[in-house]
Amino acid sequence: MNHKFEDIEVKKNAIELLENTLRRKRKRIMIGTGAMSDPYIPIETSLEYTRKALSLIEKYGFGVTLQTKSNRVLRDLDILKRINDKTKAVVQMTLTTADEDLCKILEPDVSTTKERFETLKILRDNGIPTVVWLCPILPYINDTEDNIGQILEMCVEAEVKGVICFGMGLTLREGNREYFYEQLDKSFPNLKQRYIREFKNQYVVNSPRNSVLMKQFHRACEANGIMHNNDIIFEYLHKFEDKNNARQLSLWD
């Protein structure tokens, strides 16, 4: 990017474009948002583009799955419930560390882990299915069995449908590697040199404890009936379900 991360641009006719697309689409599907930009950044409080988009998704009978790190998603719980009554509304949240102080360092300006955990439980209580992303796991920072265990305990209590994990590590592209190292120097002095020495210019930076932690992860999910195969979870997220038709079939089958 050639501008500050905090600077954003808003597509003024986004809601109009969305409605035009949904109106013309014959086959109903799941609609996803949040992969590139969180749908509940602070300006959404006044902008309400996400809420307006969800209202259109409900109006035209589509399903939705959204990714966020914000408890602001609860503002739209009423619409999510109405969508979920007809088809499927899934909320995906990232959990990185069970340590609140560390969370504020690794993920500033978003809801803390505790706030996200409380959000997941409220969604559970309202029948909204959830999926957790377990990432990033930073070598020598949050790659401990205790941290992974505490996060998975939260997932069990919140009754999440699945946990997505591509390995206990992170990816570093050219450009963001330099930024990441700069932040390491600020928050974790002397750790940058260890990263450079051990990982050099690798794109995938896995924890030396990756194998142990992945076994812990799969074992805990399996024991608690939580989906932990990424392909199966993505299939679940992409599959549109018509609950009204399902109820009619169950009556007349």
Q: Spans with pLDDT under 50 lasting ≥5 residues? A: none
- The ordered H/E elements are HEHHEHEHHEHEEHHEHHH
How can the largest sheet be summarized? 5 strands, parallel
Find the CATH superfamily. Aldolase class I
Dominant shape:
globular
CATH architecture: Alpha-Beta Barrel
Strand content is 5-15%
Assign the CATH topology: TIM Barrel
Strand order of the largest sheet: 1-2-3-4-5
What gyration radius follows from the Cα positions, in whole Å?
A: 20 Å
Mean pLDDT over the full residue set:
94
Could you characterize what this model shows?
The protein has about 250 residues and is of the alpha/beta class. It has one domain (about 25-170, about 205-250): Alpha-Beta Barrel (TIM Barrel). It is built from twelve helices and seven strands. The chain has helices spanning about 15-25, 45, 50-60, 75-85, 100-105, 115-125, 145-160, 175-185, 190-200, 210-225, 230-240, 245-250, and strands at about 30-35, 65-70, 90-95, 130-135, 160-165, 170, 205. The strands form two sheets. It has a five-stranded parallel sheet with strand order 1-2-3-4-5, with helices on both faces. Strands 6-7 form a two-stranded antiparallel ribbon. The longest helix has 14 residues, at about 145-160.
